[in-house]
């Protein structure tokens, strides 16, 4: 008798059975980092959570094809390259520096490496092809070298993140661009000066953020996946846009389950680099063993915001040390 596994899906807003699309093989995609700085404890929570999912699914007998990307070309990386090297084309150096830092942090937290760890810059032809498919099917349009996704071509836009389009259109987060057919249309390809970044049918440029994950999930896992994960901050706009792009190309449901890990908060505010209220994993590792931090994450329910507290980590440290002592004593007793 096979084990019935259920996960809470953001799309259905309910727990639902995880029924593999391909026999016992689970296809799992988790959005990775944009490497422009050291990883913070919010990143740690997300990737420890999905590491536990990965380990659990394998432990109960599933083969898991797990992909987690690096967004190694992005506005933030380019801005960091300008700051550090006075050269936007030095984004490679920035990305490599912080991808290495991230990998070291994940190793310290005992996070297993995914089966696939693609980089955006290594998948530009696939991304261009995906954008062209959206244009050819009428879901995207080009203006002056920029390509935009037309949200009006995807009637169910907003149902993943429970957003209303009329409210979004008047929201402060919408970037005004009079060239777009709808203010909510988002960039698939961003034009750049001649000869810079990557050549495409629409001129030189680079991919928009959202299209990258759609193209890489499609390449490494296929048209449909079982589980798509990430931080709660990605539900909108990133995952909403991913879903729209992919389903517009395949005409199939993209992911059976959308799983989101809640924020880490500091003083009741979401922790983020943009708010300058974040703690890097490397800073926290100076005070606590990485496995104490892993334990700290896992004793809190993943869908509940985690209020970061040094006192709480100290309490978790004591509990973790008691567990280590108990198991060590048990192993010693078993040898006698």
Task: Sum up the structure in keywords.
336 residues, alpha/beta, 5-stranded antiparallel β-sheet, 4-stranded parallel β-sheet, 10 helices
Shape: globular
Quaternary assembly: single chain
Q: What kind of sheet is the major sheet?
A: 5 strands, antiparallel
Question: Uncertain spans, ≥5 residues at pLDDT below 50?
Answer: none
Instruction: Kindly estimate the percentage of residues that lie in beta strands according to DSSP.
Output: 15-25%
Gap from first CA to last CA: 37 Å
Side by side, the strands of the main sheet go 5-6-7-9-8
Order of helices and strands: EEEHEHHHEEHEEEHEHEEEHHEH
Radius of gyration: 21 Å
Mean pLDDT: 93
Give helix % range. 25-40%
Number of helices: 10
Which class of secondary structure composition applies to the elements? alpha/beta
- Compute the number of strand runs: 14
Provide structural commentary.
The protein has 336 residues and is α/β, with parallel strands linked by helices. Helices cover 40% and strands 19% of the residues. The strands form four sheets. It has a five-stranded antiparallel β-sheet with strand order 5-6-7-9-8. Strands 4-3-10-11 form a four-stranded parallel β-sheet, covered by helices on one side. Helix 4 (124-136) packs across helix 6, helix 6 (209-220) packs across helix 7 (235-250) and helix 9 (290-298) packs across helix 10 (310-335). The longest helix has 26 residues, at 310-335. The radius of gyration is 21 Å and the shape is globular.
């Amino acid at each position: 008798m096979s084990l019935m596994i259920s996960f809470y899906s953001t799309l259905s807003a309910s727990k639902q059975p995880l029924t593999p699309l391909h026999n016992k093989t689970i296809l799992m995609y988790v959005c990775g980092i944009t490497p422009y700085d050291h990883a913070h404890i919010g990143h740690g929570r997300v990737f420890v959570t999905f590491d536990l999912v990965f380990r659990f699914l394998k432990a109960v007998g599933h083969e898991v094809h797990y992909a987690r990307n690096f967004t190694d070309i992005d506005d933030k990386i380019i801005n960091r390259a300008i700051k550090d090297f006075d050269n936007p084309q030095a984004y490679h150096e920035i990305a490599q520096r912080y991808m290495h830092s991230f990998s070291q942090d994940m190793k310290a937290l005992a996070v297993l490496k995914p089966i696939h760890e693609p980089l955006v810059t290594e998948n530009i032809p696939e991304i261009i092809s995906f954008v062209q498919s959206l244009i050819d099917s009428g879901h995207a349009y080009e203006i002056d070298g920029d390509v935009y996704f037309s949200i009006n071509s995807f009637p169910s836009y907003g149902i993943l993140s429970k957003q209303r389009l009329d409210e979004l259109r008047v929201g402060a987060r919408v970037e005004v661009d009079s060239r777009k057919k709808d203010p909510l249309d988002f960039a698939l390809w961003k034009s750049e000066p001649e000869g810079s970044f990557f050549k495409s049918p629409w001129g030189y440029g680079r991919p928009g953020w959202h299209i990258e994950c759609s193209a890489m999930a499609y390449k490494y896992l296929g048209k449909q996946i079982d589980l798509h994960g990430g931080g709660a901050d990605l539900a909108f706009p990133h995952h909403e846009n991913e879903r729209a792009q992919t389903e517009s190309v395949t005409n199939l449901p993209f992911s059976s389950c959308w799983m989101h890990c809640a924020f880490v908060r500091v003083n009741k505010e979401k922790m983020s680099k943009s708010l300058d209220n974040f703690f890097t994993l490397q800073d926290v590792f100076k005070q606590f063993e990485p496995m104490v931090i892993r334990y700290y994450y896992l004793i809190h329910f993943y869908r509940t915001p985690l209020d970061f507290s040094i006192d709480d980590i100290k309490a978790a440290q004591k509990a973790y040390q008691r567990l280590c002592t108990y198991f060590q004593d048990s192993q010693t007793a078993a040898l006698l």
